[in-house]
Amino acid sequence: RCVLKELESLGKALYGAKLIAQRFQVRNCSHHKDPVSGSACLLSMIEEGNPHRFFIATQDQDLANKVKKKAGVPLLFIIQNTMVLDKPSSKSLAFVQKLQTNQLVPEHQKQSIVQLKEKEGLAKQEGEKRRKRKRAGGPNPLSCLKKKKKKTQEGQEPSAEKKKRRKRKRNRVKAEAVQSVQKNEEE
Segment Disordered: which positions (predicted)? Predict the structure, then answer.
């Protein structure tokens, strides 16, 4: 409501902006009786950790800088007729990181883990640090050459001796048999 009141007070120059703002759902603020400036009203609505999960859309750099200082408030702005969602601020990123680490293990469980470690003697002692032993390793097997095969005294490989090829024998028909067959055919 404070933003609409401010747009009304600025006159005809921002009449179009006022019509656009009236189309959206109007949120009631605590300044109902005595309205304040639009930026002050928006900042008061997101003060306590942004409980209603509001997005702030503004072209005002001062308001944008103030919003970036608060964690968990998305910021929208317009560049050449396009709405752009600004990247999360460093405060928001740090807040999310803190939430994630706290959600992994609750605080009371962390304390009970520390107590149990102390009982069992597993708690880290500052003076005692273990070093890992370096083990001697062989050469890289990919960088080694393959071993050469040994040759026999004759100069042939042993595998050649084992394999003997069979030679195919031709059955030659004797010339006399051929001549006799030819004579039988002529008669």
Answer: 117-187
